[in-house]
């Protein structure tokens, strides 16, 4: 008997609108903004609600990634298939994420959001960003690569590193596929555990409105809506650039591969609202895996591409880095030559790889980039420190959509996409499973 990993039903029971989780998340975000604005101290004190929910989700990310990858690779019965999927995914990531960096660079040169501020670098408070710069200096390409290898086989599942979990899961899945029928009971156990873990995910996602409420209330209460006004030009430029990237660039890629980006956004609306509320794309990662499988993407592709994308395909972070770096340069009156801008882009390409999809990672990565390119003062980060939380939300949303599109594209390249099932899932839209979808096991007899 074979038990597949859980996939939500195509036609779940329709709940009343007020019981739809995405509606509850919207209401929670609106309420959180109101409390953060009118009662800032109360809003700031609600931070543990958001942090607690994110910790709950991160608690199950390692098991979800491990079980999905192991089950998918063992089901491939071919080590070459694993390398082929990974190679195609990396090729896609390299092209699209580099394009995101270039777009950020072009928009910054055209819009010039920092021009006219004429800020004296000597007046900047470098101490305010010293902690981020310190963390950035601790980051290196060699360190990143060696950190992929966990201390022990089991520590990868306990230390919270997606890349370490992915590394161990790939090795374990390959070993399981190589032992043949002897490993069948182990694969069966992995699939059964998957049923339990995805049921646990569905249970935890019921707390999404509470997490979104606490996180957004803290953001508004701590930084205030005034921060949005003070540096509104940069925020507006970044949001519009990211929106254009998603609708035009990702939209073109989606259309070329037979699906609509707008329908995909509607299909993933509950997850996008959760990302918006928590400023973390990791909060919706388990649900993204389930919904992509539900939409017809093969489990083996989803299990590899999604975790890889969370470290190597950060389109929103890449747009932010080049746009913010040039904003700082323009604000302090540093005129970067074409060669210096290309150098900045090259450094950003390297420093962006391995940035986890969690709150604040984009800011640390930007600090790492500026510390390597001394022409732009690192202290200039103080200019955008107050609004980075608002920028983080847009980064996470763009990263999330970029990884959803990438997974579908790679699945189609691999002929591992059920196109009619994808069309049906995206056409259903509002009837599709949300964050609280209850996975239903499907059994097939050998």
Model description:
This protein has 446 residues and is mainly alpha-helical. It has a single domain, classed as Sodium:dicarboxylate symporter (Proton glutamate symport protein, Orthogonal Bundle), CATH 1.10.3860. The chain is built from 20 helices and two strands. It has helices at residues 21-38, 40-45, 47-76, 79-111, 130-137, 141-147, 162-178, 184-204, 208-223, 226-230, 232-256, 261-267, 269-278, 285-294, 299-312, 315-331, 338-351, 361-372, 388-413, 419-428, and strands at residues 2-3, 443-444. A two-stranded antiparallel sheet has the order 1-2. The chain is globular and about 70 Å long. 52% of the residues are buried. Mean pLDDT is 77; it is low at 1-12 and 436-446.
What attributes does this structure have?
446 residues, mainly alpha, Proton glutamate symport protein, two-stranded antiparallel sheet, 20 helices, 69% helix, disordered N terminus, disordered C terminus
């Amino acid at each position: 008997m074979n038990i597949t990993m859980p996939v939500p039903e195509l036609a779940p029971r329709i709940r009343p609108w007020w019981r739809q989780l995405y509606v509850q998340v919207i209401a929670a975000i609106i309420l959180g903004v109101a409390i953060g604005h009118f009662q800032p101290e109360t809003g700031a004190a609600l931070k543990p609600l958001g942090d607690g929910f994110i910790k709950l989700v991160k608690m199950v990310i390692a098991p979800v990634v491990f079980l999905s990858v192991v089950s998918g690779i063992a089901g491939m019965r071919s080590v070459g298939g694993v390398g082929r999927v990974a190679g195609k995914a990396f090729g896609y990531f390299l092209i699209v994420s580099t394009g995101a960096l270039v777009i950020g660079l072009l928009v910054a040169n055209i819009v010039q959001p920092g021009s006219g501020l004429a800020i004296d670098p000597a007046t900047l408070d470098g101490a305010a960003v010293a902690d981020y710069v310190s963390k950035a200096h601790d980051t290196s390409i060699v360190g990143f690569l060696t950190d992929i290898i966990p201390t022990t086989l089991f520590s990868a599942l306990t230390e919270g590193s997606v890349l370490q979990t992915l590394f161990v899961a790939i090795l374990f899945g390959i070993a399981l596929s190589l032992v043949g029928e002897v490993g069948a009971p182990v694969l069966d156990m992995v699939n059964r555990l998957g049923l339990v873990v995805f049921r646990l995910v569905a249970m935890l996602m019921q707390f999404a409105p509470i997490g979104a409420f606490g996180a957004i209330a803290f953001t508004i209460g701590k930084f205030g809506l005034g921060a949005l006004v003070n540096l509104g030009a940069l925020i507006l430029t970044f949001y519009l650039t990211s929106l254009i990237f998603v609708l035009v660039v990702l939209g073109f890629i989606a259309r070329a591969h037979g699906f609509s980006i707008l329908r995909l956004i509607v299909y993933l609306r509950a997850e996008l609202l959760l990302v918006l509320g928590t400023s973390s794309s990791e909060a919706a990662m388990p649900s993204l895996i389930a919904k992509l499988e539900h939409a017809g993407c093969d489990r083996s592709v989803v299990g590899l591409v999604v975790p890889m994308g969370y470290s190597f395909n950060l389109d929103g972070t890449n747009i932010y880095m080049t746009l913010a770096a040039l904003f700082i340069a323009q604000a302090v009156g540093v005129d970067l030559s074409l060669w210096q801008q290309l150098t900045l882009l090259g450094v950003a390409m390297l420093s962006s790889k391995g940035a986890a999809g969690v709150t604040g990672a984009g800011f640390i990565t930007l600090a790492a980039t500026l510390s390597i390119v001394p022409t732009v003062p690192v202290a200039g980060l103080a200019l955008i420190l107050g609004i980075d939380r608002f920028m983080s939300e847009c980064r996470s949303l763009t990263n999330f959509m970029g990884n959803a599109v990438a997974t579908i594209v790679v699945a189609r390249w691999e002929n591992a996409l059920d196109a009619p099932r994808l069309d049906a899932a995206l056409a259903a839209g509002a009837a599709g499973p949300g964050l609280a979808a209850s996975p239903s096991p499907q059994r097939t007899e050998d």
